[in-house]
Every structure is written in C-alpha cells, then in structure tokens.
Amino acid sequence: MGLITKSDLHYTDYSWTVLKEDDPKISGEPDSTLLNRKEGYEVLYFINKFSEIQGFKNKNSAIKVEKMIRNEVPSDKRSQLNIKTWIEQNWSTSKF
Questions:
Q1: Which of 19, 46, 67, 87 would be a feasible disulfide site paired with 23, CB 3.0-4.6 Å?
Q2: Global pTM value
Q3: pLDDT category, 42, cuts 50, 70, 90?
C-alpha cells in the first residue's frame, strides 16, 4: 500500500476512470508514459511511487508532490519521468 490513499488527496476534482492493474499509467517506474493530471488513479499512483523512490514517510511530503503537480510543474512537462525530474530539481524551491 502507498503512503497516501484517495481520501488523503488535497484536491477533490479528479476523475476516477478504472484502469487495468497492468496499465503503464499506474504500474512500474515513472517513464515516458504521459501523466493525466486530472485522473485520480494516475496521480495517486505517481505520488505514491515518487514517495517510495524518495523514501518519504510523511503524508505531508506526498501532498506537497500533489500540489506541485497541480500548481507548479510546467504544462509542457507531460511524461511521468519529466515530471519526476522536474519535482526533484525544484523540491527545495517549491512554495508548498
């Protein structure tokens, strides 16, 4: 189980489209798969995977990732890998 669940997410306007468990949007490592920032399952998976990679133990760090995705990551960063890299590079300067 991940660090956070659906009920922990800060934003509540996600769509929750059911995806197969092996869908690359919600399985494996962050890669060139595009991240739909309004799809709850994709965002939740990404946040939990990023938190696991970074060794986060605090839910507040996971919520910071969510807020950064929604408010700070440039719209031209669309793949999971590019978003992951951007968050890593901008973590310490984030307003969240």
A1: 19
A2: 0.92
A3: very high
